[in-house]
């Protein structure tokens, strides 16, 4: 059975897709079989993970039952992928019969045992797509940029998490809040850390010890079709993501994390 991790924050620009791609590629480097699912209409996860556009099907086709999940899968050098595109923004899933909040879970059933890890990138919104990700997942990671605006809306996120737990997925667990674009030398980052710790307590979670610094390699790697870990392992931000994988490894049953030589 797969371990399914969703990366989510209703605020855009906080490092969701970068974190999703780092998880997928970092776990794949340990030799695990990984599936990356892009539920964001911007469709950036596939690009970050080096996938091509040779498959004409997207995750929306799978959710609507137009094609099977096996038909829509794309293989990249990093992992298997379910792409998305702008059509996902007007998906029409709210009109589908049955438990609309569990469409993704049902669609993945044929391949759920084929992967050791499934990483889901979500849109910057608390909509039906996000709820489907939560209903399907074991763990949630919440990236948060080190600015005040990133704190806005977490109260609503808490309500959504509690609703999913009480209705669809009682074992859904918030693994923690991951601070990105973090600079320990600035008062703002330290203030955000204090407030993030308070918010983490409210959702029965924590702020990860690892903080992600800014780094140009994070933005450059997708343009070169590479994982951040192979593109520039000397980047401070890339090293931070490697440390993050080591930090969460025991909790997600990842017995080994990328060795220092791999990153």
Descriptive overview:
- The protein has eleven helices and seven strands.
- It has 263 residues and is of the alpha/beta class.
- The chain has one domain: Rossmann fold, CATH 3.40.50.300.
- α7 links the parallel β6 (139-145) and β7 (173-180).
Query: Which percent range describes the beta-strand content?
Result: 5-15%
Order of strands across the widest beta sheet?
A: 3-4-2-5-1-6-7
Q: Write the CATH fold name.
A: Rossmann fold
Q: Rg to the nearest angstrom?
A: 17 Å
Number of helical segments? 11
Please report the first level of CATH classification, the CATH class: Alpha Beta
Distance between the termini: 27 Å
Question: Which regions have little confidence, pLDDT < 50, spanning 5+ residues?
Answer: none
Average per-residue pLDDT, rounded, comes to 89
Tertiary shape = globular
CATH homologous superfamily caption = P-loop containing nucleotide triphosphate hydrolases
* Percent helix range: 25-40%
Structural class assignment: alpha/beta
The biggest beta sheet reads: 7 strands, mixed
Can you tell me the CATH architecture?
Answer: 3-Layer(aba) Sandwich
- Please tally the β strands and state the result: 7
The arrangement of helices and strands along the chain is: EHEHHHEEHEHEHEHHHH
Q: How many distinct domains?
A: 1
Keywords:
263 residues; alpha/beta; Rossmann fold; 7-stranded mixed beta sheet; 11 helices; 7 strands; 13% strand
């Amino acid at each position: 059975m797969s371990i399914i991790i969703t990366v989510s924050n209703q605020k855009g620009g906080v490092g969701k897709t970068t974190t999703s791609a780092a998880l997928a590629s970092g776990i794949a480097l340990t030799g695990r079989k990984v599936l990356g699912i892009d539920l964001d209409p911007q469709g950036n996860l596939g690009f970050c993970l080096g996938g091509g556009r040779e498959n004409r099907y997207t995750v929306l086709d799978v959710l609507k039952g137009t094609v099977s999940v096996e038909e829509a899968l794309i293989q990249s050098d990093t992992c298997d992928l379910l792409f998305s595109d702008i059509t996902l923004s007007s998906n029409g899933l709210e009109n589908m019969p049955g438990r609309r909040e569990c469409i993704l879970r049902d669609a993945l059933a044929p391949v759920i045992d084929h992967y050791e890890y499934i990483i889901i990138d979500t849109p910057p919104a608390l909509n039906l797509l996000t709820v489907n990700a939560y209903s399907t997942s074991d763990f949630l990671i919440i990236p948060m940029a080190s600015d005040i605006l990133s704190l806005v809306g977490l109260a609503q996120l808490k309500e959504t998490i509690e609703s999913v737990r009480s209705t669809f997925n009682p074992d859904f667990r918030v693994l923690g809040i991951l601070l990105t674009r973090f600079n320990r030398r600035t008062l703002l980052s330290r203030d955000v850390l204090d407030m993030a710790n308070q918010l983490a307590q409210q959702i029965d979670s924590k702020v990860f010890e690892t903080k992600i610094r800014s780094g140009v390699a994070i933005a450059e790697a997708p343009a070169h079709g590479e994982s951040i870990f192979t593109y520039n392992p000397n980047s401070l931000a890339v090293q931070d993501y490697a440390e993050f994988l080591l930090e969460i490894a025991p909790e997600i049953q990842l017995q080994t994390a990328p060795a220092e030589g791999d990153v």
